[in-house]
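The instructor's notes for this session suggest beginning with a concrete chain rather than abstract definitions. Hand out the sequence below and ask the class to guess, before any prediction is shown, which regions might be ordered.
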Amino acid sequence: MHLWSARAADSVFAVGYADYPAVDVRTLDSTRDALVKNIGGRTLEERPLVQIGLVGREIVAESGETLLTARLLVSGARLYQIAVLGKRNAVAAADIDLFLTSFQPLGRNPR
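After discussion, reveal the predicted structure:
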């Protein structure tokens, strides 16, 4: 797993990736479960999505006042994680959406 993160507004903004032999539903499920377990939380929402031509999921989880919003995107055997973690309402929903939707893997042409 390769992970980059930055703190802002008492929140953490992170992007990471991991390479697997293959990425399937079980890989997505175990990654979601690990993210939620890391905050000691529970999943509130989960939905499939397509972003920049990559399929994946968006997950929203909580633990007390902590909110995690993450996207898991699949590109071949690579799984990308884009996440915002922080106290509820510490970052505006529009800013979370801007961060999540701005993701563009290097070497890909913007669509």
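Then share the key points. The radius of gyration is 13 Å. The mean pLDDT is 93.
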